[in-house]
Amino acid sequence: MKTRSVLLVAFAFCVVHSVAAEPLASWNDGPAKQSIIEFVEAVTTEGSPDFVPVAERIATFDNDGCLWSEQPLYFQLIFAMDRVKELAPQHPEWNTTQPFQAVLEDDHEALAASGVEGVLTLVMASHAGLTTEEFDQVAREWLDTAKHPRFDRPYHELTFLPMVELLEYLRDNGFKTFIVSGGGIDFLRVFAEEAYGIPPEQVIGSSIKASFEMRDGVPVIVKQPEMNFIDDKEGKPVGIHQHIGRRPIAAFGNSDGDLQMLQWTTAGEGRRFGLLVRHTDAEREWAYDRDSHIGKLDKALDEAGKKGWTVVDMAEDWKTVYVPE
Amino acid sequence: MKTRSVLLVAFAFCVVHSVAAEPLASWNDGPAKQSIIEFVEAVTTEGSPDFVPVAERIATFDNDGCLWSEQPLYFQLIFAMDRVKELAPQHPEWNTTQPFQAVLEDDHEALAASGVEGVLTLVMASHAGLTTEEFDQVAREWLDTAKHPRFDRPYHELTFLPMVELLEYLRDNGFKTFIVSGGGIDFLRVFAEEAYGIPPEQVIGSSIKASFEMRDGVPVIVKQPEMNFIDDKEGKPVGIHQHIGRRPIAAFGNSDGDLQMLQWTTAGEGRRFGLLVRHTDAEREWAYDRDSHIGKLDKALDEAGKKGWTVVDMAEDWKTVYVPE
Ligand SMILES: [Ca+2]
Ligand SMILES: [Ca+2]
After folding, report:
1. Count of CB atoms within 10 A of residue B114's CB?
2. Which numeric CATH code is attached to B31-72+155-206+228-317?
3. Distance B215 CA to ligand 1 centre (A)
4. For A35-62, what is each residue's pLDDT tens digit?
5. What is the pLDDT, as a whole number, of residue B5?
């Protein structure tokens, strides 16, 4: 007789798991930290009316201005600018075409105004034709060598320690953490695993199209000069649906680009959590909100008041801003 | 003094983990089963020259004809046909337009010939305008009630037990298992978690576009009558890149639609694994390959021989075909 039973025995084994002695250690005690802890305890306590099974504990995070800084320009825009300058000799037409002209003339205001689409246009033009592996290498080299003009540190070190702790705290409580960024998905994947502990398959972002080709009998994926998806504003809940297929129970952002993601997340049934990081700290980071070209926080701030979303006051709520050197 | 240490102590805790007494119990001993076990042992044994860290143990599976049957028609096509018949009174133009006419006249040959794009056209027409939650409910109801004409069982029970065991065996060995299907991503997600243990965020498939809208102040995502992505042939490695961002080390399919996924997977550095399920069992399932409209296996079969991919002979290699009732 053949047995068809798949699972016959169960046995226990142990894994060593490191846990923060004190979760959210870089957060000052206050309403923001308290709201986070209350939410996590409510959805993870068995028997609680707000209990959520592990498989449904999905949390989505914006990146620029939420997990790392975004001033004086989106970091990926600085990367694309450096790349455009490098390739400019082969593209004389860029001297008189926007947004390339602005890059070559270091006109930051024109660039900042070009927004997410400006970044993507530059990315498209400067990265199309590269295989995914070539792109990975170009981005890695830039991240390893380029330094932020104000802090003189590599860009990937300008991540927010309190937010990195928050990601860890959520994962320690059974959450799966995702990035949902207007930035380029392939660029984010180069550093997200090391900086945030978020693997490539949990990164959602804007993208250009790609195609599968054989080059000398070797299969490659090549980036194409055509927009695929803009993961910003209304695009964020759509990107979440396409990639995750499940509505998050918590969402974290910092600007009006995150409004729809927070609306979609917090409109679900059961207990939900929305949080906005407000840049209030000109001394340690930057202070900007309603009038900023980059990371404009206006409508979402009004809605946070109405919906009871947590608003982090960076100057008040964070003991430390950046991860230690 | 503030401490900036995030991780101060580590402690061990235990999880109970169930493991199959005998992995791949429904597989006969033979070269196919042996090749799977040899591969898994090589990439999971520390110190082995082929060792692969857990984070990189990505395995991708085609669905139709690989994880469940696909005869006499793709099951999702039968679902879309049932839906078209239901909606036909509101669409008199369908009586004279293909592929709708074929549906209403039960012309299976014309439908089979319409392939993945035919399915998607029907899906698009019959599901556009539904919110993602409405679609989910419609698909769930169909899966709960519709029965396969030959076996008189719900379609989601016609999954292959040996492949379900293979998914479990890989996961027990630290692999992350993904579906990469030409079928519709939202349809797959309705049953993949229960049938295969694969959560929605690990399902990749074809899709139509979606948009974020407010309906009476409630945010919804609405399916649109426009193709977004066809996850078949060259589309499979592209879909893998966009969703996972990491090249799999093992890929499993059954037709020429999987050729590029297997090429992309097995061309990576280090030890790789490719497998094709060959339908050789007319008695317990179906027998078809080079001349079939559905699941044509021709070029990929030739390439399997050259590349050393495993070819499963369903009649020889599987003790049991379907999961037990
Ligand atoms: Ca942002
Ligand atoms: Ca197939």
Report:
1. 19
2. 3.40.50.1000
3. 26
4. 999 999 999 999 999 999 999 999 999 9
5. 35
Separation in Å, CA of A117 to nearest CA in chain B: 19
pLDDT category at B2 given cuts 50, 70, 90 is: very low
* Complex ipTM over 0.85: yes
Is the per-residue pLDDT at B270 higher than 80?
A: yes
Mean residue pLDDT of chain A comes to: 91
Q: What is the pLDDT of residues B14-33, one digit of tens each?
A: 333 344 468 999 999 999 99
CB contact under 8 A, A4 and B161: yes
What kind of architecture, by CATH, is found in domain A31-45+52-71+160-317?
3-Layer(aba) Sandwich (3.40)
Could you tell me if B6 lies within 8 Å of chain A, comparing CB atoms? yes
Say which amino acid occupies B183. Answer: G
Q: Walk along chain A (325 residues) and give the pLDDT tens digit of each residue.
A: 333 333 332 232 333 334 446 899 999 999 999 999 999 999 999 999 999 999 999 999 999 999 999 999 899 989 999 999 999 999 999 999 888 999 999 988 888 777 777 777 888 888 889 999 999 999 999 999 999 999 999 999 999 999 999 999 999 999 999 999 999 999 999 999 999 999 999 999 999 999 999 999 999 999 999 999 999 999 999 999 999 999 999 999 999 999 999 999 999 999 999 999 999 999 999 999 999 989 999 999 999 999 999 999 999 999 999 999 8
Residues of A in contact with B203 (CB under 8 A): 245
Q: Contact, A202 vs A177, CB < 8 A?
A: yes
Which chain A residues touch B6 with a CB distance below 8 Å? 20, 25, 161, 164-165, 168
Does the distance separating the beta carbons of A20 and B7 come in below 8 Å? yes
Distance A325 CA to ligand 1 centre (A): 23
C-alpha A286 to ligand 2 mean position (Å)? 53
Domain boundaries along the sequence of chain A: 31-45+52-71+160-317, 75-145
Q: Which of B16, B19, B242 is nearest residue A207 as measured by Cβ atoms? A: B242
Chain pair A-B, CB pairs under 8 angstroms = 169
Q: Ligand 2: distance of its center to the CA of B64 in Å? A: 4
Could you tell me if B3 lies within 8 Å of chain A, comparing CB atoms? yes
